[in-house]
Design a protein that fits this description.
Blueprint lengths: L7 H8 L13 H18 L11 E6 L5 H7 L4 E8 L2 H11 L11 E5 L15 E7 L8 H8 L3 E12 L3 H14 L16 H9 L10 E9 L3 E5 L7 E7 L5
Helix pairs in contact: 2-3
Length: 257
């Protein structure tokens, strides 16, 4: 078995939240509200020229899927061929599977598969076409103690021309005040202790990491966009917000040829 990048204390924290994952007013409320923006950002990545991606038969790998908020929604899209969703928490994956059983459209073999495992233990497809068009890491990397080796474990699953898409939080005093103080300690929008500010990752640090990788992000194949939660209105995209708060980041694996 490969060495895991998962922090056991993080798994324990989310295990405790598993039972309320699908409560739209519960501990994962902000994730439910953010989900439409995830799809919007993926669509914006696919629309980038000169390698705009045909919007059909996408194969998704959702890493750190949690209770399945994104995975389920992706599996229901007509442009989706399949979704494989993995998470290291036994309790959270059980909640995801139980919720998916409520929807007959998700019961088709191969449409939505949940696996209780770390990315280091998932077998890398040997054939490029068996890899994934979209690999997602939504609200995951800021819970990883050693993000560089973790990202290196994720990269081989993206097929040439495919996208790695993630959302995370910049490590700034603004994000500390908004996320740790306001959202967790004062307003209770997020369970206290969910975020460790020292694990937040700045957008320029992600760019530096991918600059050191061969075969990623040529010809404008990289995109970032900030987003902010506005009470009463929900999440809104904010250009430039990637430098101080929550943001999306996407990078394309260079097409072959």
């Amino acid at each position: 078995m490969s060495s895991s990048s998962v922090d056991p204390t993080e798994v324990s924290h989310f295990n405790a939240l598993a039972s309320t994952w699908w409560d739209p007013y519960g501990s994962s409320r902000l994730l439910h509200l953010m989900n439409p923006l995830r799809h919007d950002f993926i669509a914006a990545c696919h629309a980038l020229k000169p390698h705009a991606t045909p919007r059909s038969n996408f194969r998704y790998l959702d890493i750190g899927c949690g209770g399945g908020i994104f995975a389920e929604s992706a599996a229901r899209m007509p442009s989706t061929a399949s979704v494989t969703a993995i998470d290291p928490s036994v309790e959270v994956v059980a909640v995801a599977r139980q919720h998916a059983r409520r929807d007959p459209s998700l019961q088709k073999p191969g449409r939505l598969d949940y696996l209780n495992m770390d990315i280091e233990d998932l077998v890398i497809p040997k054939v490029q076409e068996d890899k994934y068009d979209v690999v997602t890491l939504f609200e995951v990397i800021e819970h990883i103690s050693h993000p560089a080796p973790f990202l290196e474990s994720c990269l081989p699953f993206v097929k040439p021309g495919g996208w790695l898409v993630l959302s995370t939080i910049a490590r700034t005093w603004t994000s500390w005040a908004i996320t740790n103080v306001a959202a967790e300690d004062i307003l209770g929008l997020v369970p206290r202790g969910t975020h460790d500010w020292s694990k937040f990752i700045n957008e320029h640090e992600l760019r530096k990491f991918f600059d050191a990788q061969r075969g990623w992000g040529v010809n404008g194949g990289v995109k970032a966009m900030g987003c902010v939660y506005v009470p009463g209105l929900g999440w809104r995209m904010v250009r430039g917000g990637e430098h101080w708060g929550n943001y999306f980041f996407g990078i394309r694996r260079d097409p072959e040829g």
